[in-house]
């Protein structure tokens, strides 16, 4: 999968993402990432990317032409007839989630447009953007961090990016349950012991304990998720008992 990011801060994207799992996937050629500097596509000698808003008001607006030229260059580089999806990061977009990450991971190429200042000339958005996406109900200074968040989450859904061991942790979120608590050595730290069952070597008991702790945690922090959880008989019984307890409280 190939990611292209149109931005005024290309180093932020490349340096921020070339680490850990994504760095490994890029080195292995499973995903590629190119951050393209919109400023390289300006035509005036001062390399202006923004201008005053028509109608007045505070701040500056990113102009359409450099973005259009930047986008055309990406299309030319790809050399493919089919137009790629173009994501514009904005607080008024659809809120990003794991399902969207999975869906976007099906694309071969994905282009991101990162805005700054007060926004981007609407005419270039109308022209090229296919998806308006927000990463949450708060306002950030630009689209770079949201693009990075999305690229990380999407890449993890691309086959071959995660090892078998790593994908286990993703599946549990997909099953609408939060992660169970984890422990490592030492057995006693600061007076607190590792739960006995984890030292037992009984894998069935350990699996059962972990599922129950996942259920507890989901009920505690994200109760709205539990209705979508896929549970085996034993876990379903545990959940019913917990919910029963709660109604009796
Ligand atoms: N740009 C600024 N804030 C944003 C947000 N919350 N999500 C996506 N893009 C943004």
Q: Report the average pLDDT across residues.
A: 95
The major sheet is characterized as:
5 strands, parallel
**CATH topology tier name of the largest domain:** Alpha/beta knot
Tell me the fraction of residues in β-strands, as a range: 15-25%
* CATH class membership of the largest domain: Alpha Beta
Number of helices: 9
Query: N- to C-terminal separation?
Result: 51 Å
Strand order, main sheet: write it out: 2-1-6-5-7
Bound molecules: adenine
Portion of residues within helices? 40-55%
Return Rg in Å: 23 Å
Write a compact overview of the structure shown:
With 249 residues, this protein is an alpha/beta fold. The chain is 41% helix and 16% strand. The chain folds into two domains: 2-165, Alpha/beta knot (3-Layer(aba) Sandwich); 174-248, Trp Operon Repressor, Chain A (Orthogonal Bundle), CATH 1.10.1270.20.
